[in-house]
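Retro notes (design track)

What went well: tokenization of the new backbones is finally stable.
What didn't: we kept losing track of which sequence belonged to which structure.
Fix going forward: every design gets posted as structure first, then sequence, in one message. First example under the new rule, 256 residues:
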């Protein structure tokens, strides 16, 4: 009875309403949006795809929880919000990481989005933004973490983290994003950002290099950091951090 009254009311208010809810302006607009998204996923360049989509903890559609990083090699990033895991997969490779989420203890992240800054067949640069419960994405961030994911070492390096304990204080940096370049034996990260918690905003420069090295005890490959940032004539301290993530699943036959 209620449904009949509702449809009747809509029909009387809109003479073009046929009674088929799939033909309402909202439903038609949603279908058009889905088609645009599907076309982008299918035909866009890798970079265009990264810039167009992010993965969110509130998504339930499997399509929305997967992003093709490098189409030519079938390299895919996939989010499992229930398990709070981020997967990187392609032929011969499956690595997974336990990321910040609602069950994260001291590092609680009620809602989050994951955006790709850059990617290649052997690495990716990821930004995870955490939001306050009930906040719309892009507002009232609790924290932001830039990660360098490296296939060889099966690690996500948390090379920069910004956070606040109050919703009234903005996070400490604004775009542009860091620039990560591959070197002969690792990576170089360069970044000039502005600290918007100060007035006027302070400009801060970051230059880190990471070289592959073998741990003398475990004999495992890792990325050794050296901070080249010159702070008052001394080497900087941007290597001092503790949020790196080791893969909890590392199945690979080849890293190429």
């Amino acid at each position: 009875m209620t449904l009949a009254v509702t449809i009747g009311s809509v029909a009387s208010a809109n003479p073009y309403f046929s009674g088929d809810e799939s033909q309402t302006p909202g439903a038609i607009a949603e279908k058009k949006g889905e088609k645009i998204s599907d076309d982008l996923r299918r035909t866009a360049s890798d970079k265009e795809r990264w810039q167009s989509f992010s993965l969110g903890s509130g998504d339930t559609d499997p399509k929305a929880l997967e992003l093709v990083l490098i189409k030519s090699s079938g390299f895919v990033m996939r989010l499992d919000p229930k398990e709070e895991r981020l997967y990187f997969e392609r032929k011969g490779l499956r690595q997974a990481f336990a990321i910040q989420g609602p069950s994260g203890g001291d590092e609680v992240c009620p809602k989050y989005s994951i955006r790709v800054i850059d990617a290649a067949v052997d690495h990716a640069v990821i930004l995870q933004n955490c939001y306050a419960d009930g906040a719309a994405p892009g507002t009232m961030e609790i924290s932001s973490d830039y990660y360098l994911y490296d296939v060889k070492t099966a690690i996500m390096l948390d090379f920069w983290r910004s956070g606040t304990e109050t919703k009234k204080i903005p996070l400490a940096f604004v775009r542009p994003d860091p620039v990560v370049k591959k070197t002969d034996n690792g990576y170089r990260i360069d970044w000039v950002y502005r600290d918007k918690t100060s007035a006027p905003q302070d400009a801060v420069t970051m230059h880190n290099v990471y070289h592959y090295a073998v741990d003398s005890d475990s004999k495992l490959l890792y990325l050794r950091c050296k901070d080249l940032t010159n702070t008052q004539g001394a080497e900087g301290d941007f290597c001092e951090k503790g949020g790196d993530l080791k893969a909890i699943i590392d199945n690979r036959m080849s890293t190429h």
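Added context from the reviewer: Residues 25-43 form the longest helix (19 residues).
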